[in-house]
Amino acid sequence: MCHRFDDEGSHRLLGCTILGVVIATRSYIRYGFNVFLEKVTGSSSLTPVWKKRENTARFFLRWLMYGACTGVMVWVIVDKAIKEPNNLRSLPGIVIIMFICLCFSTAPNKVNYHTIFWSVGLQFLLSLFILNWKTGKDAIWWLQSRIDEFFHNSEDGSKLMFGQNYKEHYMIFGAMPLLFFTNGMMTLLYYCGVMQFIVTVFGNFLNFILDASPVESMVVAAGTFMEGFTALTAFRPYLKSLTKSQLFLVITSCFSS
User: Fold this and answer.
1) DSSP states of 151-169 as a string?
2) CA separation for the pair 183, 237 (Å, rounded)
3) The model's pTM
4) Where is 247: in which H helix or E strand?
5) If we measure between CA atoms, which residue out of 127, 134, 139, 136 comes closest to residue 90?
6) How far is it, in rounded angstroms, from Cα 59 to Cα 65?
7) Tens of pLDDT along 130-165?
8) Which of 189, 169, 187 is nearest to 179 (CA)?
9) CA distance 253 to 194
10) Which residue pairs, CB below 8 angstroms and at least 24 apart, start in 147-156?
């Protein structure tokens, strides 16, 4: 028997194995931490003193991240202005769109400028990650290719069931099977605890940065790689907990993707 560890299949198997180990390890560590915390403080939650320390640490960390992100934004603008000025054509558009939204807002005094700053700042960080780093660009392309390959499986099923001309009635024979296929796979991932792990870890990370709910952040981020309504399907169990404004943001991001 010959084992190969340099092909695409082995890489996927390794990735799934690592993800499973991380999920299981995280559960045990979290359980052990709660037990330790309960023995020390008599409660499984943080005391007010530790809560205050945590809030202080978050405050200083956020301002440190503000400075770092501002530096990256300035560096990217100056670097691209010198090397490729045409890449800055979208910058005035971003400013104009945000200004129009602010003008038509019914409550401009309630706008969270922290979210706006980091929404724009993350785009600059991604541009630095993708445009200035070949490995980052390859990683994004690989991820997008794997997601596209996943959705192509639905197309193969449509061809098998409805024939090669299924795209003549794509809404029924193309889009609907895609939703069913995605919903089935996401149900399986929820059963295995994978989606809960993704929402908890990455959602809370985006929540800390953007100051938006984890579900909002994850749906918008997923819309970058997935079609709008398939991203909604991926996080369907969490949608019922959203407020009207949060649901409006999610639907808007889905239509804009």
Assistant:
1) HHHHHHHHHHHH-TTGGGG
2) 11
3) 0.68
4) helix 244-256
5) 127
6) 10
7) 777 788 788 778 777 877 777 777 777 777 677 677
8) 187
9) 23
10) 147/225, 147/226, 150/185, 151/178, 151/182, 151/226, 151/227, 151/230, 153/181, 154/178, 154/181, 154/182
